[in-house]
Amino acid sequence: MTSSRVKRLTLDAMLLGVAMMLSYLEAVLPLSLVIPIPGAKLGLCNVVVTLCFYAVSPLDAGIVSLMRITLTSLLFGNVSSFIFSLFGGFFAYAGMWLCKFFGDKVSYYGISVLCAALHNIGQCLAGSVLLFSFSIFSYLPLLLIFAVAFGLVTGAVITPIMRLFKNA
Questions:
Q1: Which of 110, 122, 102 is nearest to 148 (CA)?
Q2: 15-53, pLDDT tens digit by residue?
Q3: CB atoms within 10 A of CB 167
Q4: Domain count within the chain
Q5: Dihedrals φ, ψ of 30, to 5°?
């Protein structure tokens, strides 16, 4: 293996580790005491995936995201949490690709809000598949309100970090 491939693999492993730690942190935070919405999370691990997508490569971000979803589901979740996360992660990843086509015209705030909203849409779709009902989509408007709020938070975290990457 060449030195650059080893460095890239090491970086991906570190990003995966950080994403998993943030996922665990979100799992143990009592956010439901503050926000009485089942399943509402800040999406801190999405900061890592977005950084990987734009600072390393889209392929690496897809691998890091898929590995995080798989490993955190095995460690802290179950089959249904895996399906919800997989659908949400896929939709958010597709959103990053969509934003990539627009170049610098979409800010990291916009990317984060769009991906958070798409993540919620993906999770509602997963719920409708698991429950054999589209009634779960009645929950979507409320989820989208939180997607905007939490997307702005993750955008605020990503923006200065990406400036550091670009200046390095």
A1: 110
A2: 999 999 998 888 887 676 677 776 677 888 999 999 999
A3: 6
A4: 1
A5: -80, 55
CA–CA gap between residue 145 and residue 167 (Å, rounded) = 34
Residues in the chain: 168
For 16, other C-beta atoms within 10 Å of its C-beta total: 22
pLDDT digits (tens, 9 = 90+) for 121-162: 999 999 999 999 988 899 899 999 999 999 999 999 999 999
Which domain covers residue 23, as residue numbers?
A: 3-167
Residue 166 CA: distances (Å) to CA of 51, 121, 142: 11, 31, 36
Q: What is the CATH number of the domain that holds 83?
A: 1.10.1760
Distance CA 4, CA 10 (A): 10
Report yes or no: 23 and 81 within 8 Å, Cβ to Cβ.
no
The CA-atom distances, in angstroms, between 98 and each of 61, 91, 93, 136, 149 are: 14, 10, 9, 26, 21
**Residue 77: helix, strand or coil by DSSP?**
coil
